[in-house]
Design a protein that fits this description.
The structure is a single chain. The chain is an alpha/beta fold. Helices cover 43% and strands 17% of the residues. The protein contains 11 helices and 14 strands. A 7-stranded mixed β-sheet has the order 1-6-5-4-7-8-9, with helices on both faces. The longest helix has 46 residues.
């Protein structure tokens, strides 16, 4: 139910043009609450000083004459803690001077620390953020860049997370500050800005990215982002989504390795569900990574080299040989070669799912995924 709200926010006019990088962090306390807390601490220090002076008021000398009353104690505590020191009320007894040295002077220092604490905290926070961003940029390698965090972008992130990709290897780029704040709240690093501009993508370290997912709301924006991304990174895998199928060739020419037509794909799934609801359910299960059946790509293992497609442990759909995609029933697909990659249907297994007798499943999961190979009916 939250996905449409992110789409609506993505259409808003950017609130901040500074192209800020936002990293995940703990939610700060409310500013008014912080100020109120500091004022309360300062008031407690002031009252403690007044109490000390009031207990030893006979050891103080007032130039106006007469003993110190409660107002004089407040006055002396105020001018003392603020380091004003007019000198009209001074301690002349030994006990009063000793209390000034041991108690009132530390309270004065504490009072000043509370007053300037906000400024120091701001400077410290800014320094920490700059250091954190610098360290983040230096450590960021082979990450995945998500351009657009609407319905498509969030679904792509969920699928990537289901395949085992960690949060710290995902960077979100979106022109809406609210959308990036939502992504940061979910634990992802975000960059506020227009992804069609080179400086925005460079802030996201696109030159060192391994793959780029373009999930913008407009097809023309997707084309511009693809052109810019390909110019900045020649080796990255770029996957883009378009609404209209006629724009797919243009997006491929702009540098995208794979183009998904969202409207047509949804229409074909709808048509399939009308003709065969069960087949539609299976297809939806296949594209929903991490639950039920998953469609994954994996390399050929050593024991499978030289065997036919039907002799593998998995349900092989296609064989990727070089740049050719061969069907499972293609005579050229068998025997399998060591450089082949298999498109297989596997059963998803969550990392915490126990096997028989509380043990982990005997078969190892596929490399880079959280799925395990499916056994054939004859095994």
């Amino acid at each position: 139910m939250k996905l449409p709200s992110h789409d609506a926010a993505a259409h808003e006019v950017p609130e901040d043009r500074s192209h800020r990088v936002m990293l995940p962090r703990r939610a700060p306390k409310a500013p008014l609450r912080q100020v109120g807390r500091r004022l309360l601490m300062a008031l407690l220090v002031l009252l403690a000083t007044v109490f000390i002076v009031w207990l030893d008021r006979d050891e103080y000398h007032d130039n106006a004459g007469g003993p110190l009353d409660l107002l004089d104690c407040f006055y002396y505590a105020t001018v003392t803690l603020s380091t004003t020191g007019y000198g009209d009320i001074v301690p002349y007894g030994d006990s009063a001077r000793l209390l000034n040295i041991l108690l009132i002077t530390p309270l004065r220092v504490l009072f000043l620390i509370i007053l300037v604490g906000t400024t120091l905290e701001v400077l410290t926070e800014r320094t920490r953020e700059q250091w954190q961003r610098k360290r983040w940029r230096n450590a960021l390698r082979d990450h995945t860049l998500i351009v657009g965090f609407g319905t498509k972008g969030r679904s792509a992130v969920q699928t990537l997370r289901a395949t085992g990709l960690s949060r710290d290897r995902i960077v979100i780029v979106d022109p809406s500050t609210k959308v990036i704040e939502a992504a940061v709240a979910d634990g992802y690093a975000g960059v506020v800005g227009d992804a069609t501009r080179s400086d925005v993508l460079l802030r996201a370290e696109i030159q060192r990215a391994h793959q780029v997912v373009i999930a913008t709301q407009r097809d023309d924006t997707a084309v511009l982002v693809s052109l810019t991304a390909r110019q900045l990174n020649k080796k990255a895998t770029i996957v883009a989504a378009v609404r209209e199928e006629e724009n797919a060739p243009l997006l491929r020419q702009s540098g995208a390795d794979s183009v998904i037509t969202s409207a047509s794909a949804a229409g074909r799934l709808l048509g399939l569900s009308v003709h065969s609801p069960s087949a539609g359910t299976v297809m939806e299960d296949l594209i929903q990574q991490g639950s039920g059946l998953d469609l994954v790509e994996r390399p050929v293992v050593k024991s499978e080299v030289g065997r036919s497609v039907r002799e593998t442990d998995d349900l092989v759909v296609s064989v990727l040989r070089g740049h050719r995609l061969l069907g499972y029933d293609d005579p050229e697909a068998s025997p399998l070669q060591s450089t082949d990659r298999l498109i297989t249907i596997v059963r998803a297994v969550t990392p915490e799912e126990p096997g028989p007798a509380g043990k982990q499943p005997g078969k190892p999961t596929l490399p880079g995924t959280t799925v395990s190979p499916m056994r054939r009916a004859d095994e």
